[in-house]
Amino acid sequence: MSIYVGNLSYDVTEDDLTSVFTEYGSVKRVQLPTDRETGRKRGFGFVEMGADTEETAAIEALDGAEWMGRDLKVNKAKPREERGGSFGGGRRNNNSSNRY
Asked: Which helix (H) or strand (E) element contains residue 14?
């Protein structure tokens, strides 16, 4: 299981998140996704812990808790949904004046 942690400060680091979740058990992995274009953190992250009981304890304790000036949203992470087959919204130029 993985834990979703939302409404994070953009200044949070993986070490910050690790130290908070270590209070509830062993942290195996922390991930803070960044925006592809800007490289800026996206305000949420994922934490994997050593045991389901540790993850449950962390979720119960931290969901709604204030941290770094924000109220955290903490719950079980849902599997990533596959996006549709679209590869962007680029327009094709179908102007008849471009034909030979």
From this structure: helix 14-21
Residue 38: how many other CB atoms lie within 10 Å: 8
DSSP 33-76: -B-TTT--B-SEEEEEES-HHHHHHHHHHHTT-EETTEE-EEEE
Strand partners, 30: 47
Which residue from 49, 47, 48, 38 is spatially nearest to 8, judged by alpha carbons? 47
To the nearest 10 degrees (0 to 180), the angle between helices 52-62 and 14-21 is 100
Find out whether 63 and 82 touch, Cβ atoms under 8 Å: no
The Cβ of residue 30 has, within 10 Å, a number of other Cβ atoms equal to 21
pLDDT score at 58: 98
Q: Is the pLDDT of residue 5 over 90?
A: yes
Q: How far is it, in rounded angstroms, from Cα 26 to Cα 83?
A: 33
C-alpha to C-alpha distance for 52 and 73, rounded to whole angstroms: 18
